[in-house]
Amino acid sequence: MEEAAALLGVSVKTFNKVLHSEDMPARKIGREWKFSRLALIQWVGGGSSRDFYHEVGSALRDTSRTRRTAGWKIETD
After folding, report:
1. pLDDT (tens digit, 9 = 90+) per residue, 37-60?
2. Using an 8 Å Cβ cutoff, are 47 and 6 in contact?
3. What is the pLDDT of residues 7-38, one digit of tens each?
4. Quick check: 27 and 34 in contact, CB under 8 A?
5. 3-state helix, strand, coil in the chain (%, to 5)
6. Domain limits at 31?
7. What angle do CA 57, 58, 63 make, to 5 degrees?
8. What are phi and psi of 74, to 5 degrees?
9. What are the CA-CA distances from residue 11 to residues 17, 54, 60, 63 (Å)?
10. Tally of domains in the chain
């Protein structure tokens, strides 16, 4: 997964969020995800993604939480 995230220029955390929110060309074999380099490039370049960076932004906002503890505001991911 690290190599696929690096190929697309995003963090592994961001890549994982998009993987689970879109129809990314991937296969889960056992506990590991397998990706074709060519399929990922075509997926991003071919418009198969629902605006990749827009989707990433909304996925990150949806999982962001704020916790208040003894007067301190703590942002958690």
Report:
1. 998 888 888 764 455 556 555 555
2. no
3. 888 899 988 888 888 788 889 999 998 989 99
4. yes
5. 50, 25, 25
6. 2-76
7. 100
8. -120, 120
9. 10, 15, 12, 15
10. 1
